[in-house]
Amino acid sequence: MKVLIVEDETAAYENLAAMLTHIEPTIEILGNTESVRQTIRWLQNETKPDLIFMDIHLSDGSAFAIFQHIEVEIPIIFTTAYDQYAIDAFKVNSVDYLLKPIKPEELKRAIDKFRRWNHQDIARYLTQLAHLSPATKYKDKLLLPLKDKLLPIDTREIACFYTSERNTYLFLRNGRSYPYAKTLEQIMASLNPADFIRANKQFILARDSVKELTVWFDNRLLVRLDVEVPERIYISKNKASEFKSWMVSRE
Q: Quick one: which of 207, 205, 216 has its CA closest to 160?
């Protein structure tokens, strides 16, 4: 059985891959995609897997956006750390739904369930999968709590979001910054991935605030914004190609 793992956290991918090969040594892991864009490109151009393990929150937005761009004809087992998304995953007769941290016995149960499906089960599932999620409506304004007030912020005014030691901050293009009590995962899910990207574990960046890219000695990218931020922003070698593509194309 050939498997594709759609997961943007390296540790989560490695853990799932290790459990899969331990539970089912004959499984062949074809690869790992980390974003909506990478997954779309893979499914359009690479060897098709028999089964996909798909995290719902990816580096550039919700995995459900994949189904708005291409027709997916492969059964999926959804994975996520957020159980409030279960209702979305179960809008279809999904193979299974695994809540992180994934337990080996639950993973084995999901694989066994998939193996019991016949051609009719898969055909019915794929028909439903095409209607998984309606067109996403992204926020063009955020309400920022400030003491006893709520400050409306136009997303076009945002330069980036930054997190450090469990605290998240919103940086505006005018140079001001404010604490923002949400995780980067929660924030990214509400933003248009054409305008914002999860650059790394610390930053979400706005396209229009990127001022300069420098190719670093190890093929990472150093990103400079039009505002001052607390630390340097690096794009990993693995994500550099995707980031450059995002900079010059608008979906």
A: 205
pLDDT of residue 218: 84
- Positive or negative torsion for Cα 235, 38, 41, 245: negative
Q: Which two tokens stand for residue 45?
A: 């151009």
Q: Kindly report the pTM of this predicted structure.
A: 0.60
Predicted pLDDT at 93 = 43
- Give the β-pairing of 76-80 and 96-99: parallel
Contacts with 100 (C-beta within 8 Å, 6 or more apart), sequence order: 12, 79, 80, 81
Q: What are phi and psi of 185, to 5 degrees?
A: -65, -45
Are 123 and 75 in contact, with CB atoms under 8 Å apart?
no
Confidence (pLDDT) at 61: 76
Contact 55, 80 (CB under 8 A): yes
Q: What is the pLDDT of residues 89-139, one digit of tens each?
A: 554 446 778 888 899 999 999 999 888 888 777 777 766 665 555 455 678
**Per-residue pLDDT tens digits for 241-250:** 888 888 887 5
Are the beta carbons of 127 and 94 closer than 8 angstroms? Answer: no
Q: Which of 134, 23, 41, 135 is nearest to 77 (CA)?
A: 23
Strand residues in 42-187 grouped as ranges (E): 51-55, 57-58, 61-62, 76-80, 96-99, 141-146, 149-154, 158-164, 167-172, 177-179
Q: CA triplet 130, 135, 138: central angle to 5 degrees?
A: 145
Does residue 52 contact residue 75 with C-beta atoms inside 8 Å? Answer: yes
**Contacts with 46 (C-beta within 8 Å, 6 or more apart), sequence order:** 30, 31
Comparing CA positions, the residue from 74, 89, 64 lying closest to residue 123 is 74
Mapping DSSP to helix (H, G, I), strand (E, B) and coil, where does residue 150 land? strand
